[in-house]
Amino acid sequence: MGKLGYIFRCIAHMDYGALFQTVGDCHDKSGKNRVWLFADVVKCGFKFGAGYKDYSLLEFYNMNDAQRATFVTRGVNNTIVRRLNNPEYYHLVDNKNEFYEFFNEYLHRGWLHFSTCSKEEFLAFMEGREQIIAKPSDLCCGQGVEKLKVADFDSLDALYDYLKGSGADLIEDVVVQHPAMAKIYPGSVNTIRVYTVRPEDGEPHVIYACIRMGNSDRPVDNINAGGMYAVVDLETGKIAGPACDKEFHVYERHPRSGTELPGYQIPMWDKVMNLCHAAAAKIPGMGYVGWDVAITEDGPLFIEANNLPGHDAFPQMPSQAPDHIGFKPQFEKYLGKL
């Protein structure tokens, strides 16, 4: 009932207006009959676990069923999560405070659980600090994250009141990224999203990595917040091709910095891989995790982790999979038939 239950939940909560808009958009791009497209979207939902957003983003209307079966859709991704991740341990990554405590040795920055601290503890933490990052406890995709400068407030008391009013849960040091990472785009901390799987044999494997880059006025690099991503070669740590975003734009160079992306060397790559291997082996009950890694001059560190790693960062966009072969076979090397 797992797969069917997931499909029926999607049907019950579907935004039908957006569904019909997607059918219209696919018709405009492909010229195919709207009725046929609607029926095909429904079929792909049942057969491949593909939502209408998957259908559009991956251009399923241009593929046959054998090709579609190779893609990690939303439903396939959720199947992997259900198979490898125990919900009893989700709190270790969902709750930022618990994540920070559990993985404190990998954070390499000062932080404070603001929502539970006293004002005196806050003032002591702020001594010598000119700016901080404030985060809510349980939002994702960069939502609610703010970079705050002490100089923008009349006093630390005013900053404290602002943080209380905004619902901040954690405050922490601003991560200063490695110059080679800042060269890509200095407006955000550009992170490496590393996907690890730990199948039933207990041995963790890095299965995929991509670099996420900001491309907006917000200090975040999330794909769902206007950012872009590019595949990173696991062996060399070099960017393996152009970047793309969720609007189907493809970038050989970063549009704001002008930095050429294909072939760009990510610094300290071996240390990034070692960090994620160690964390994947340490965390209990979680066999499929997406680790967000920043790289500073002192080495890599964790920003956060995800127990439902987004499948939209896999190299499956039309420009990345011109042969219409998706990423699912890479998972099946370790997990068997999905």
UniProtKB/TrEMBL annotation:
The UniProt record lists the Alpha-L-glutamate ligase-related protein ATP-grasp domain at: 158-319
Which Gene3D superfamilies did the record assign? ATP-grasp fold, A domain, ATP-grasp fold, B domain
Gene Ontology MF terms in the entry: ATP binding
| Classification via InterPro entries | ATP_grasp_subdomain_1 (IPR013815), RimK-rel_E_lig_ATP-grasp (IPR039523)
Name of this protein: Alpha-L-glutamate ligase-related protein ATP-grasp domain-containing protein
Organism, per UniProt?
Answer: Collinsella acetigenes
- Specify the taxonomic lineage: Bacteria, Bacillati, Actinomycetota, Coriobacteriia, Coriobacteriales
